[in-house]
Amino acid sequence: MFNSNNLTHLIQQAQTMQEKIKKVQKDIENLEIIGESGAGLVKITLFGNHKCKKIEIDHSLLIKEEKEILEDLITAAFNDASRRITEEKNNRVSNASNKFNLPPEFNLNF
Predict the structure, then answer these.
(1) Assessment of whether the complete model's pTM goes beyond 0.70
(2) Any idea what DSSP says for residue 50?
(3) What is the mean pLDDT of the chain?
(4) Confidence class of residue 110 from pLDDT cuts 50, 70 and 90?
(5) 3-state secondary structure of 70
(6) Is 35 a residue whose pLDDT tops 60?
(7) Would you give the distance in Å from CA 98 to the centre of its chain?
(8) % of the chain exceeding 70 in pLDDT
């Protein structure tokens, strides 16, 4: 049977979960994730909010005729970093919410 003690406990759990998720989200924003392509020839560092911090290009790629290859490598490195941010975010939110024994259909990944 559902009573006021159960409701109070449920509300407390929801508030605790909300606080933990906010902390995880803030931690994620401060993450620095490096994506790379071309066996490390191009590296892009993104913050967890997907803002680019830095791009590193190996000097061996700076040949005029290689412009299109360089652009493709930069795109691939950016996408790699973005994918890694999403994975890390989902892992951290999942870890934070696992403590609350939520049913599988209650998905907090974003």
Answers:
(1) no
(2) S
(3) 84
(4) low
(5) helix
(6) yes
(7) 18
(8) 87
β-strand partners of 44: 35, 55
What is the C-alpha separation between 14 and 28, in angstroms, rounded? Answer: 21
Smallest Cα–Cα separation from 23: which of 89, 84, 85?
Answer: 89
- The answer, yes or no, to whether residue 28 has pLDDT greater than 80, is yes
> What CATH number does the domain located at 4-98 have?
3.30.1310.10
Q: What are the CB-based long-range contacts (under 8 Å, 24+) for 81-85?
A: 81/33, 81/34, 81/35, 81/44, 81/45, 81/46, 82/35, 82/46, 82/50, 83/35, 84/33, 84/35, 85/28, 85/31, 85/33, 85/46, 85/48, 85/50
Structure token digits, residue 77: 């490195």
d(CA 73, CA 68): 9
Q: What is the distance between the alpha carbons of residues 7 and 45, in angstroms, rounded to a whole number?
A: 45
